[in-house]
Amino acid sequence: MSLSSTKPTLVMGARGNVGKLVLESLITHGMPVRASSRKLTAGDFPPEIDAVAADLTDPDSLAVAFEGVGQVFLYANHDGVDGVIESARTAGVDRLVLMSSGSVVHPTSAGNAITEEHREVEEAFAAAPDLTVVPIRPLVLAMNALGWAWPIAAGRPVPLYRPDAMTAPIHEADIAAVVVAALRGSDDVSDMLTGPARTSQREQVAMIGRAIGQEIAVVEQSRPEALVHLSRFMPETEAAAVLAFLDDAEAGNSPATATVEQVLGRPPVGFDVWAADHAGDFRR
């Protein structure tokens, strides 16, 4: 793909945590853009932004969204992959940058239900002729900690399964920066993305506490308790897969990698910075 192309870049999910940062950065770099979200309402985007409603499972909406664009940033969605591929090929899209998961290239995550769903999506795109697909693979997302916002804001203990499991969560701003590097032509972006250092879940809660100026208690959950708790927010099979990731982290298998620094030329930001950036999400 030529970086001199005047075709716009479509950012799907452009109101999401990563998508909105990708959109802002592309605009800052002077690249023509189009934004999409599943449901488009007045005021979602500034009036100067070309914005459309598009759903990855709705080929008719994709035909409109993909028309005339040179490349697309999108999230892995197991449903509708064939329609996305066909719509992209029909529209002549040159490049897809796919938000996937680092678990796909993490050996001890093989067989995990979440891992294998992402792997199936990647393999379907990789098998598509006439499409260049660049996967972006963050392992542990710092923004998953927003799941602790309600008990923290309510002054209650944070329930944790495997509180001493060590992970290296990555800030969504670093994910977005790697996505933008891919959209600006870099191909060496698909190794596992993490934050700079491994910290325990317990310490991550403490970092949030320091960011908001209060002590936060932690209560350890048994596996059955954690499965019931998480199943309130996601299907039970997905909840079990999340617990399996934490079992693996407890065993010491959730690494910190150098990929962000290799791509961006600077270290990734730490979880303490993420906590400070999101302090308002955890306050009453």
Write the layout of secondary structure elements.
Layout lengths: L8 E4 L6 H10 L4 E5 L12 E4 L5 H8 L4 E5 L5 H11 L3 E5 L13 H14 L5 E7 L10 H5 L4 E3 L5 E2 L4 H12 L8 E2 L5 E2 H12 L5 E3 L2 H8 L5 H15 L8 H6 L6 H7 L7
Parallel strand pairs: 1-2, 1-4, 2-3, 4-5, 5-6, 6-9, 7-11
Antiparallel strand pairs: 8-10
Helix pairs in contact: 1-6, 2-3, 7-11, 8-9
Descriptive report:
- With 284 residues, this protein is an alpha/beta fold.
- Helices cover 38% and strands 15% of the residues.
- The protein is built from eleven helices and eleven strands.
- It has helices at 19-28, 59-66, 81-91, 113-126, 149-153, 172-183, 201-212, 223-230, 236-250, 259-264, 271-277; strands at 9-12, 33-37, 50-53, 71-75, 95-99, 132-138, 158-160, 166-167, 192-193, 199-200, 218-220.
- A seven-stranded parallel sheet has the order 3-2-1-4-5-6-9, sandwiched between helices. A two-stranded parallel ribbon has the order 7-11.
- Strand 1 (9-12), helix 1 and strand 2 form a beta-alpha-beta unit.
- Helix 1 (19-28) packs across helix 6 and helix 8 crosses helix 9.
- The longest helix is centred in the last third of the chain and has 15 residues, at 236-250.
- It is globular, with a radius of gyration of 19 Å.
* Major sheet summary line: 7 strands, parallel
Share of β-strand residues: 5-15%
Strand order of the largest sheet: 3-2-1-4-5-6-9
CA-CA gap between termini:
48 Å
CA-based gyration radius = 19 Å
Kindly state the percentage of residues in helix: 25-40%
